Amino acid sequence: MFKKPVLVESLLVLAVVLLVHTAAWDRYSWCALALAVQAFYAQFKWDRLLQLGGAVFQFRTTANSGLLPASMVIPLLGIVMKERCKAAGIVYFERFGVVVASTGMLVALFLSVIAVGITKPVPTNTCIVTGVAGSIIIYTMKHSLTVSEVIEVLEVLLIFVYLSMILLYLLPRCFTPGEALLVLGGLSFVLNQLIKRSLNAVEGRGEPIDFFLLVAVVGVVLLGLFFTVLFLFMDSGTWISSLFFHMMTAVLGLGVIMPWLYRLIQRNPLFWLLQFLFQTQTRVYLLVYWTFLAASACGVVFYQNAKRSSESKKHQASTLTRKYFHFIVVATYVPGLIYDHQLLHIAAVLCLAVFIFLEYIRYFRIKPFGQTLRHLLSLFLDERDSGPLILTHIYLLLGMSLPVWLFPRACAPKGTLSGAGALVPYSGVLAVGVGDTIASVFGSTMGEIKWPGTKKTFEGTMTAIFAQIIAVALILIFDSSVNLNSSYAWILASVSLVSLLEAYTTQIDNLLLPLYLQIMFM
Question: Membrane topology per the record (predicted)?
């Protein structure tokens, strides 16, 4: 009974892989197909290891391993990016897509080999499938990649190995193996890109907003690692430690991150940011509007905690209460997508940095706000927050932002892709902001027919599909840059597949669903 949802989830992922394979039909899509079959076999070995407690690190126990859906995200993103940029004639980003696909395949294969290696007795069939898939992938890489590209792929793999050993040890029960693959694989690629671009900064390739994303992500992660090591030797909850935390944050920010950004964008980062934010009147209006929404979100948190104080029996926020934040992020992202993509890109980066920094303050109990944040956020915990970090709100932000950040602007002739590709930046809004929210609200309040083996309901899924179709119609009305070119059947199929995946996956849907919808749209 436990394996039945896993099988349906695997079939849905395989359907996406086959659709991409049919569209691309080249050596890389064949490799993706081989990887999917291999990951399907290896996934059950990881599930068995988690059930028996035989995994090397402590993973989240309220879900299956999620290896197959996570393994396919980065390779498929690379393949569809390659196809889009090939059609646009942009050779540099076409090769970049090849590197992304190759890196994703190799990292996923590495994680599968670990599962096979520590499973006792040795699973013969899985070993054969893994060997065949690995041979196909390595043979294709050997005949497709240049020497510099092979080195880049191996660099990302090496970074992934070290990051996995460090972060999975420091953050037990925060990830499933699939989520670790997705998060740490993406982080490894970002770190490698930042190192590569820093060494070649004189070439001036890239836009400042892209450098802001790379530096912000790597900067906050390095900041967290620094303080984790530091607070192994001192109590983080004292005023002296808290003062040292704030001082060192300022030193690292002004002494490392700002000079790093200056080298990349060749101008003062703070002056550039201020000029960028207030460049037009539309941006000022958007910033004021977003400030109001941020204050509203804080108001919801304070109100729910005050309500908890008066109702001592209520210990956790309801599903409907948690979905307030989904409605708020939809109201935040839609105007940004319609009026100013670049401002939304930078605002999302800054918001991510703030979210992670506040999580450090909560986790380390930094005075004066650490204990207050612990109390306020404890109301919104669910079964996915079983580790020392609270990550669901960060995953929500990532799910909404990744389609904006990963949108291949260089391969879009007029700033937007044709057909269903025009909806790529809206993938997070549709999958998480509309689909997941409506499915949860209607499923929990009116749903009666449950999907076999899950807690999700048929009514919730169907309502989510219908709501996303209505949302697409509204996007067509209000965003003049979107032209679907009669690709309505493909959009319906994409939305339906991802909504079914939401019903059957036990992984972090805020992170997984937007990426799969983006792959389908591209």
Answer: Multi-pass membrane protein
Query: How far is Cα 420 from Cα 495, in angstroms, rounded to an integer?
Result: 11
Longest dimension (CA), the chain: 67
| N- to C-terminal Cα separation, the chain | 35
Same domain, 230 and 330: yes
pLDDT tens track for 73-92: 999 999 999 988 888 888 88
Report the alpha-carbon distance of residue 502 to residue 9 in Å, rounded. Answer: 9
pTM: 0.93
Picking from 470, 474, 462, 445, the residue whose alpha carbon sits closest to that of residue 502 is 462
CA–CA distance, 94 with 89 (Å, rounded to integer): 8
Structural domains in the chain (count): 3
Strand partners, 229: none
Of 75, 57, 172, 164, residue with least CA distance to 118 = 57
The residue out of 346, 375, 406 marking a domain boundary is 406
Residue 451 DSSP symbol: P
C-beta of residue 511 within 8 angstroms of C-beta of residue 179: yes
Q: Could you count the other beta carbons within 10 Å of the beta carbon of residue 87?
A: 13
Whether residues 143 and 58 share a domain: the answer is yes
Which structural domain range is residue 155 located in? 1-200
